Amino acid sequence: MHSDADMNESVYFKEEDLSSRELTAFPLDVLQNKHIESLLLDYNDIKELPPEIGMCIQSLKCFSALGNSLTSIPESFGNLGQLEEVYLNENELVKLPDSLCRLKHLKVLKLTGNQLKVLPEEFGELTALEKLSCDENILFRLPKTFGCLENLRILELSCNSIEKLSEGFGMLRSLEVLNLCSNKLTSLPESFGNLPNLKTVDISVNEIKFLPSHFNSSLTLQKIYIDSNLLQTLPDWVSNLENIVEFSVKDNQFQNQTLSDSFPKVCKKLKHLDLSGNFMSYLPSTIGELEKLEFLHLGSVIGELERRNFQNGNWLAEIPNSICCLTNLKQLHLDENQLNELPRDFGSLISLEILDLGQNLLHELPESFGNLKCLRVCMLSKNHLMWLPSNFGDLSELEDLRLDDNELAELPESFYKLSKLKTLDLFSNRLIEIPVALHQLKNLVRLDLDCNDFKVPLSQIPQIITQSKYPERDPNLKDNWRGRARKDITNLDKDIIKAPNYGPLEDFEPPPPGLNLSEDCLIMAMKKNMSIWKSHSDTSNAQRKPYRPKQRMRIHYDSGSEDDNEDNEKLVHNLDIDNECEGSYEDSGTDYDNPDDDEDDDDDNFEPPIYIQPTEWSGLKQSVPDKGTQENVQAMLEDTECWDDEVNENAKQFDETPVYVHPTKLYYTPIDCGKFTFAPFDIHEESYVKRPERYPVEDGQFENCDIDDTEDINVDPVF
Fold first, then answer.
1. Integer Cα distance of 119 and 554 in angstroms
2. What is the mean pLDDT of residues 109-130?
3. 617 closest CA partner among 526, 493, 717, 553
4. Pairing assessment for the beta strands 480-481 and 484-485 based on DSSP bridges
5. Taking the CA of residue 96 as centre, how many other CA atoms within 13 Å lie in the half-sphere pointing to its CB?
6. Cβ distance 225 to 204 under 8 Å?
7. Quick one: three-class SS letters along 204-226?
8. How confident is the model at residue 464, as a pLDDT?
9. To 5 degrees, how large is the angle CA 564–CA 569–CA 573?
């Protein structure tokens, strides 16, 4: 609230900025400024506007109250006849006053992030309106007069519940930018094609099956996004988009060829083309005529490195040779197709920086592949590659290389030239010798050599060890923080991992305490099941990160001797996620493209996972929670947020095995690792559960101390 003295000094100010002042009520002294033209009240907690606002400051041209708690606008607001811009984003408005439609000079109206269900019926009287943002509301229809907004150029209506557009929508002759993404549209009116000046259109994430047969904006349109609809065909006007720059129709239901042969011949300005996640079986042979194309996506709509073994991409068995003419192409995504080979001149894509060929049927790469001098990221996961071209090392800019789940027996001699390589994934290949080239790759920070038959001791397999630059903490200060007593939180209960259990809960028994495992078993399990951890001092104690846990979990029963443990194992869960994880870590010869191969293995053919703790220390001093009852498990389920709806759909019961937590070096009380499940965290497998923060965090706790930041970590390969 301004004082009278302040008001006397600012009474003639034309702009009043009261943003972020923690106001809980409208500052009434502002109403005394008869000359004010701009009033900014953004990011306060104002719940209502005074009824007299429309009588006192009629010179106002710009009113902004972003991020408040307004639930309504007074009727007198329509008396502010000079208003040109109104910003009411991120409030709690459920209705607009009818008087708003009297603002004849209003050009900009922003209503994003409210709770509006409808707009006033006379909304079309705002004939001067040029920009309207009403996205992130709950609108289910537009008023019949909406087509009278003859000067409207930009219309944002995404994230609503609009089910239908009236035929009058085609009267918006000035419309240039239209965003109707994430609504419930099943069709577009035929008058939609009458819009003559559209430049950008986004109608993604609806349920549209057909597009209008004609489109008057075909010569002006520059960007169009029709992702995640139900389209099966494209109308003929799509091939006449002379000025199109970005075209995306990913995740629809096309069959066979999506684009006509004439499309590349006409759309010469196209730079971005996304056809991912459809049922395309072939491309037009003229695709190479898109000379300015920089981005081409023909793969999966799912962005994760590894996906389930069902088809998310297309069905391309080959790509036309003309694709090698796309010399300006920077990104090419062909993952999750049925490609057996690449064109011989594939190396002609000299501008290519990102290439994804994962989950195809490739057995080899063309010799010209080494000509991709600009390539930085190369994804070749889940193919059948047996060797790489001899000049593969000429990819001098390569930083990220994924070759996991192939059949490579060796790397080419030129591999050592990849001096900029930071990530190398060779998981699950047929390597029998440690690649000599690894000694030259000094910039590696991520390396996975698991599931290869090296025939050497574990200690001789190269690994990445991370070491903090920060000095070791003073052990004398372990119980306090900056001179203040620090609460002992080491006895807090551990998190519980809850994995789906397809059997009745009452049928499964928790393992008895006292399980003992041999040291060899512990080392092997450490290699396969443990996450990486960091030592603050001695890097020799740091362990390597395992990258592919098995997708089954067993509970061990101690029969009194270690030799009998294996016979007494009881299979509790069978989590069939990826075919390649079935059975042992040995190569199983699984056909990743055949989902019928994803069958349960018999218990006798399955290599059991082993739960371990490192041998360099004895464990973290903390209590281990007792095995809970069925009620406890259900209570814990309610507190857990799970990211994978697909898995949780049938997940009725859960395993309550405590998750192992790696100890710090300050505590050495032994714990029995046989009671713990080792949660998988690595680049190959997502965690089933979004685990909450383990311990509370104090303000300023991480200032001037060890922080998990890649810029503050020394990373050295160890050989």
1. 59
2. 96
3. 526
4. antiparallel
5. 25
6. yes
7. CCCCCCCCCCCCCCCCCCCEEEC
8. 78
9. 170
Chain centre distance of CA 529: 25
Let me know: does 284 contact 256? Beta carbons within 8 Å. no
Name every residue whose Cβ is closer than 8 Å to that of residue 719 and which is 6 or more positions away in sequence: 434, 438, 439, 462
Q: pTM of this prediction?
A: 0.67
Rounded to an integer, what distance in angstroms lies between the CA atom of residue 131 and that of residue 150?
11
Give alpha helix (H) positions in 240-389.
263-266
State which H helix or E strand residue 332 sits in. Answer: strand 331-333
- pLDDT one-digit tens code per residue, 427-467: 999 999 999 898 889 899 999 998 999 988 877 888 776 65
Query: How long, in residues, is the chain?
Result: 719
The pLDDT tens digits of the residues spanning 57-94 come to 989 999 999 999 999 999 999 999 999 999 999 999 99
CA–CA separation, 636 and 649 (whole Å) = 17
Instruction: Give the contacts of 126 (CB within 8 A, at least 6 positions apart).
Output: 100, 101, 103, 104, 106, 109, 149
**Residue 381, token pair as written in the block:** 């996961």
Tokens read off for 709? 């930041």
For 346, 421, 427, the CA distances from 321, given in Å and listed in that order, are 8, 30, 31
Distance CA 69, CA 45 (A): 6
Radius of gyration in angstroms for the set of CA atoms belonging to the chain, rounded to a whole number? 32
Helix (H) or strand (E) holding 468: strand 463-468
**Residue-wise DSSP of 618-680:** -----PPPPPP-HHHHHHHHHT-EES-HHHHTT--EE--PBBP-PPPTT------GGG-B---
682/530 Cα distance (integer angstroms): 9
**438 close to 461: Cβ distance less than 8 angstroms:** no
| Nearest to 170, CA basis, from 207, 212, 209 | 212
Nearest alpha-carbon partner for 382 in 592, 639, 70? 592
pLDDT in tens, 221-269: 999 999 999 999 999 999 999 999 999 999 999 877 788 999 999 999 9
Residue closest to 288 by CA, chosen among 361, 203, 345? 345
Least confident of 230-244, 379-393, 665-679: 665-679
Lowest-confidence region among 220-224, 332-336, 693-697: 693-697
C-alpha–C-alpha distance, residues 75 and 84, integer Å: 17
| Pairing of the two strands 653-654 and 500-501 | antiparallel
DSSP string, 188-202: --GGGGG-----EEE
**Contact between residue 372 and residue 352 where contact means Cβ atoms under 8 Å apart:** yes
> What integer pLDDT is reported at residue 143 of this predicted model?
95
Q: Tell which phi-psi region holds residue 560, choosing left (phi > 0), alpha (psi between -120 and 50) or beta.
A: left
Report whether 308 contacts 330 (CB < 8 A).
Answer: no
Higher pLDDT, 431 or 692: 431
Going by their DSSP bridges, the two strands 108-110 and 85-87 should be labelled as parallel
> Tell me: the pLDDT tens digits for 12-23?
578 999 999 999
Phi, psi for residue 393 in degrees, rounded to 5: -65, -10
CB hemisphere CA count around 448 (13 angstroms): 25
Task: State the Cα angle at 357 between 355 and 363, rounded to 5°.
Answer: 130
Q: What would the pLDDT profile of 276-311 be if each residue is shown by its tens digit? A: 999 889 899 999 999 999 999 999 987 654 445 556
- What pLDDT is recorded for position 317? 94
